[in-house]
């Protein structure tokens, strides 16, 4: 009877200290490995999300500028009925590259007097709190964007028509392509063929000449056609005629090749 009792006691005894420590060590190793994998996956997902967000906001800004150009600049049959003018200005604000794009559409009333129908301004100003630029958009003129909401605006809100679009901008430039170069300003009465908008939210650095700049890979640019319905004139380049010396040399080479071929035929015969 005592032998059976001792056998049951041996079967009911708990884990030893060494077994508990071994189990805790293995469990901790598994937990650390799982947490490490989770941290790497979370950081990779965060990097992808930040990359998508960093490119989404500039794309939305440029799309809005393109929509403003398409909406205001429309072909008209009568030149006196409406007129459109684009003004571009680039400058440095607290060493940050900044630009101002103005799209102005005017009409002539019954007295043949020019009136501003709509004016849209895109510009970036310096923000002391964030030490960066804030991109603003202004819309004014006869046509209201939202008559219901604009009618309820206060007097000071009507006088200050600039609305902040986004902050943290470190580079904003609007240029006009001219062949292989770019013009930083445009004040002509005629419309430019297109504009190039460049924006960035990257970390700026000071250049040797003084102004701030951002890495090229951090800049996002888009070329926007000003009038997509305009007629584009194509110029076909004429094929240059070969020079006389070069033509004579080519004829001599052809005659030499024919002579060599004839000598080969004679030898074969």
* N to C succession of SSEs: HHEEEEHHEEEEEEEH
Count of beta strands: 11
How many helical elements? 5
Shape descriptor reads: elongated
Instruction: Catalogue the unreliable spans.
Output: 76-80, 260-269
User: What is the helix content?
Assistant: 25-40%
What does this structure look like?
The chain has 269 residues and is of the alpha+beta class. The chain has a domain at 54-225. 38% of the residues lie in helices and 32% in strands. It has five helices and eleven strands, in the order H-H-E-E-E-E-H-H-E-E-E-E-E-E-E-H. The chain has helices spanning 2-12, 17-72, 147-150, 155-159, 244-268; strands at 82-93, 96-108, 114-127, 132-141, 162-169, 171-178, 181-183, 194-200, 205-206, 212-213, 220-225. The strands form three sheets. The chain has a five-stranded antiparallel β-sheet, with helices on one face. Strand 3 and strand 4 (132-141) form a beta hairpin. It is elongated.
Keywords:
11 strands, 5 helices, elongated, about 270 residues, alpha+beta, disordered C terminus, five-stranded antiparallel sheet, about 30% strand, four-stranded antiparallel sheet
SSE inventory with pairings:
Blueprint: H1 2-12, H2 17-72, E1 82-93, E2 96-108, E3 114-127, E4 132-141, H3 147-150, H4 155-159, E5 162-169, E6 171-178, E7 181-183, E8 194-200, E9 205-206, E10 212-213, E11 220-225, H5 244-268
Antiparallel strand pairs: 1-2, 2-3, 3-4, 4-5, 6-7, 6-8, 8-11, 9-10
